[in-house]
Design goal:
Helices cover 30% and strands 8% of the residues. It has a three-stranded antiparallel sheet, with no helix packed on it. The protein is elongated. It has a domain of 27 residues. The protein is of the alpha+beta class. It contains four helices and three strands.
Length: 133
């Protein structure tokens, strides 16, 4: 389909098919349905700067279910027939064999410890230079 027209009761939709030579043909689908999009068939439309500025100024008309003539019974699980469950993002990926508990924990004063070790090494090198001559 290249364009979709929703029915007034939102239980069906109609539109022309996407293939050429079907200018007068109309396809009707019943809702709920699953629509797929082919790669390359939907071209990205990049808006112009004047279009963006006009869109910012245009008011958004928000409507609730009552304004559309729908009640809570029309939108319930039994009336619709399908229901969206709860979704959560997948857990973060970890490398195999590496868990956060197995990583070394550095103390808060690790930079001071490293400076002290560096001073000890420098002192040892100085004493070796003196001893060797």
């Amino acid at each position: 389909m290249t364009a979709i027209q929703w029915a007034g009761d939102f239980k069906s939709a109609t539109g022309p098919p996407a293939y050429r030579g079907a200018a007068e043909e109309v396809v009707e689908i019943k809702l709920p349905c699953l629509l797929t999009i082919e790669k390359g068939s939907a071209k990205l439309a990049i808006p112009s700067l004047p279009g963006l500025m006009k869109a910012k100024k245009r008011p958004v008309d928000a409507k609730n279910a009552a304004a559309l003539g729908l009640s809570a019974a029309d939108l319930g699980k039994e009336a619709v027939g399908t229901w969206m469950g709860e979704f959560a993002p997948p857990p973060p990926a970890r490398r195999a064999g590496c868990s956060p508990e197995s990583l070394p924990r550095w103390p808060r004063n690790s930079s001071k410890i490293l400076r002290d070790v560096e001073e000890v090494i420098d002192d040892c090198c100085e004493s070796l230079k003196i001893a060797i001559g």
